[in-house]
Amino acid sequence: MPDLKTLFSLAGITLLVAGCSATPGAASGAASGAASAGAASAGAASAGAASAGAASAGAASAGAASAGAASANVLRGSYVALGDSYTAGLGIPEQAGATAGCGQSTSSYPYLVARSLRLDLTDMSCSSATIADMTAAQPTGDGTNPAQLGALSSGTALVTVSIGGNDIGLIDIVTKCTELDLVPALIPGGGSSTLTPCEDFYTSGGTDQIRQRIRSVTGHLADTLTQIRERAPHARVYVVGYPDLLPAGGGGCGGALGITAGDIAFLNREEVRLNGALEQVARAAGDGYVDTYTPSQGHDACSAPASRWLEPLLTTSAAAPLHPNAAGERAMADAVVEAVKSAS
Fold first, then answer.
1. Contact, 167 vs 213, CB < 8 A?
2. Do 274 and 293 form a contact (C-beta atoms < 8 A)?
3. Any catalytic annotation for residue 323?
4. CA distances from 70 to 103, 114, 115 (A)
5. 3-class secondary structure for the chain?
6. Where does residue 229 rank: exposed (0-12), middle (13-18), buried (19+ CB within 10 A)?
7. What is the pLDDT of residues 130-182, one digit of tens each?
8. What are the chain's domains?
9. Cα–Cα distance between 335 and 341 in angstroms, integer?
10. What is the pLDDT, as a whole number, of residue 1?
11. Is the four-CA dihedral 320, 321, 325, 328 of positive or negative sign?
C-alpha cells in the first residue's frame, strides 16, 4: 500500500471528525492518542530492543517450536515472498530490507514464516507495489526495488504472493470515502448509518467501479501466477488474501475513520469480493490460497486496541494506518504456516 507520508495525511481528516463529533474531553483524548502513536513510532528502536530481549528469553521454546514445524514440513531451501506493504509490514519495528522505502519489517509474516519453517527467505515485498511491479523495477523514492519475480529460480521451494490492493486503489478509495462522508459522519444519534455517499459515488450510473477494477486484477494475477510457475517450477505457491480491515456490519467504528456505517459495510463487501477473486484465480492456477480474512474477523481496525490486528487512521500501535500491526502479521504467518503444513 502507499507510504507512511500519504497514510498519515489521511489521519488529519479523521482527527477533524473526532474533534467535531466527540465531547471536548474525548477530542483531547484523540489528540493525545495521535501524539502517543507518534511517540510509539519514535521509540521503535527501544521497543524493538525490548522485543528482542523477550525473544532471547524464550529462545529455547521458540527453537523447539521451529524444530517441530520443520520436522512436520517437507519443504527445504528458499522461500520468496512477493507482495505489497501488507506483506512487508510497513511501519512495524524493526524496519529492514535491502531496498530503502519498501517498508519491510523483521516482524512481517514472511520473516515469521521463514523462521517457523526454517527456510531461507528472500523478501521482495515493497510498499505501494502493484501487479506490474512483479515484472518491473519499482522506484520507491528512497531506492529502487528490483522486479519481484527476479528472485525466483528452479531452486525456490515456497512462494507467497499478496497483491491487488494497490491495483484497485484501496487507500485512494478510503481517502475518497473520508472526503465524501465528512459531513454525514457527523450526524448525531446514528443518523449516518443509512447514508452511503461513498457507495453512491462508486456505483453511480449502475456500474460498480471497484468491481470492475477487481475484474482487471484477476486477469493480471492469472498471468503473474503463470510466470511464477515458469520461473519456479518446483515451488509450492500460495496467494495470501487480505485480513479483515473493516467490520462487516459497519458498526463499532465511531469516529475512528470518519466514514458512515453504511459505507464501512460497503467497503467491507468490496474487500470480501477482492479476496474471493484472489482465491478463484489461485485455485484455477492450481495454487494454494491462504485465507487471512476469516481468522481476523473481530480484530479489524475498528475493534478495541487490545484486540485489533489492523490499525485505524490514528494508530495505537507501531504500524502504518490501515495496515496490519505486529499481531496481525503474526496471525497472517500462522495462517500461511498452517496452509503449508496441511498440504505436506
1. yes
2. no
3. yes
4. 28, 10, 9
5. CCCHHHHHHHHHHHHHHHHHHCCHHHHHHHHHHHHHHHHHHHCHHHHHHHHHHHHHHCHHHHHHHHHHHHHHCCCCCEEEEEECHHHHCCCCCCEECCCCCCCEECCCHHHHHHHHHCCEEEECCCCCCCHHHHCCCEECCCCEECCHHHHCCCCEEEEEEECCCCCCCHHHHHHHHHHHCCCHHHCCCCCCCCCCHHHHHHCHHHCCHHHHHHHHHHHHHHHHHHHHHHHCCCCEEEEECCCCCCCCCCCCCCCCCCCCHHHHHHHHHHHHHHHHHHHHHHHHCCCEEECCHHHHCCCCCCCCCCCCCECCCCCCCCCCCCCECHHHHHHHHHHHHHHHHHCC
6. middle
7. 999 999 999 998 999 999 999 999 999 999 999 999 999 998 998 899 889 88
8. 4-342 (3.40.50.1110)
9. 10
10. 64
11. negative
pLDDT at residue 344, as a whole number: 73
In the set 85, 162, 192, 296, the catalytic residue is 85
Higher pLDDT, 296 or 73: 296
Which entry of 21, 125, 162, 323 is annotated as an active-site residue?
Answer: 323
**Amino acid identity, position 172:** D
Residue with the three cell numbers 469516529? 255
Interatomic CA distance for residues 128 and 169, integer angstroms: 10
**Single-letter amino acid, residue 82:** L
Give the three cell numbers for residue 28: 483531547
Q: Which grid coordinates are listed for 61?
A: 521454546
The answer, yes or no, to whether residue 207 has pLDDT greater than 50, is yes
Task: Read off φ and ψ for residue 10, nearest 5 degrees.
Answer: -70, -30
> Considering the entire predicted model, what is its pTM?
0.80
> Do 259 and 17 form a contact (C-beta atoms < 8 A)?
no
* φ/ψ (deg, to 5) at 307: -115, -5
234 is an active site residue: no
pLDDT tens sequence across 237-288: 999 999 999 999 887 776 678 889 899 999 999 999 999 999 999 999 999 9
Unique residue bearing C-alpha cell 478510503: 174
